[in-house]
């Protein structure tokens, strides 16, 4: 009986049904009745066998774990292989996808509006604007950007500053129990010596609070004779017990402006009244030689130099004149709502599209705007035009071959401050003029 039941397994019966179906298709019409009778007999037998096997299974399934055991026996070897390989394939595909996204020119979340050739042209144009021959190669700044640089970045446009350069000391040495020697390398990648004017310079010193009042002095060390020190600034520091440490600004503008044999280097000696030199650092408590200094000591003695140029002075005068002119235009600005006329439209510049998010720290993007639209004829004053453009438009309306029609162009521009890491790893804030369109007109 067992052998008989084994010969009628569901799998075998399915194969028999398929064979009979194929025979039915290929059998001549004359034999159709015989085949139909055979099918009915087989299906009747199949129904009885399946019913008997179902009852048997229901009885046996009452035993614990039988269902799982039978399922494991009935899975073909190929399905077992697929159940193992498929998750592995999914994991491998995820890894390959993430790696390929990391090696592309753009972050995976950024969809570029430009082709690779256009991106390269934009990179070259921006680098020329920035005065660079190549972009910095480092991935991340070696030392975090201090909080005060972000504050300077927010306010630099109001001060008409062209450059703000930030330097950590390349060497810090202990001369005695209360004196530090700070050595700075002032070399920069982009500089116009004949055009630059040092507006001010300051040392940002991080001192730990103590119970007593501190007296701090800053000296410039002469480059020809290191025994000659010039007093630059001195202060009495009151302790602020609300914090464990406090920032102190020392004015060293005089030293930075002074002519030196090597203008790319400067040394300062810092003298503290406290005998505990370790109060200078926020976490270090072991006085030693600091020619290779820890990051906390470097961050606690930064030099910040503010630079103006002749261009920033001209921009300041132009900005004041444009501000007055803009207020005058607002009084009688009845510009047409026709969208085809000259107007300012949106233009977003995203440095992530250039894959520069690793060295341009702020802004990640900005609204440059653009001027679009037609200049109607005759021109009226609310199109921010000039008498020359009005005359040019009249002549063009008479004979277009003589002069071109006035064009919609920017009439007022604004500067843009950019915080970035230069080729030498220094933190720089540069105020670039004419980077944002404020107003448009027909000229």
CATH class of the largest domain: Mainly Beta
CATH architecture of the largest domain: Sandwich
| Helix vs. strand class | alpha+beta
| pLDDT averaged over residues | 71
SSE ordering: HHHHHHHEEEEEEEHEHEHEEEEEHEE
**How is the quaternary structure best described?**
single chain
Tally of strands: 16
Keywords: Disulfide bond, Glycoprotein, Growth factor, Secreted, Signal
Family: Belongs to the TGF-beta family.
InterPro entries: Cystine-knot_cytokine, TGF-b_C, TGF-beta-rel, TGFb_CS
Organism: Loa loa
Structure notes:
It holds the Pfam family TGF_beta. Residues 315-334 have a biased composition (Basic residues). It is found in: Secreted. By secondary structure, this protein is of the alpha+beta class. 35% of the residues lie in helices and 26% in strands. The strands form four sheets. Strands 7-4-9-1-16-15-12 form a seven-stranded antiparallel beta sheet. Strands 2-3-8-5-6 form a five-stranded antiparallel beta sheet. α2 (10-26) packs antiparallel against α3 (32-60). The model is unreliable at 1-14, 20-109, 275-295 and 327-336 (pLDDT under 50).
Highlighted features:
Cystine Knot Cytokines, subunit B; alpha+beta; 3 domains; 7-stranded antiparallel sheet; 26% strand; Hemocyanin, Chain: A, domain 2; TGFb_CS; 443 residues; disordered N terminus
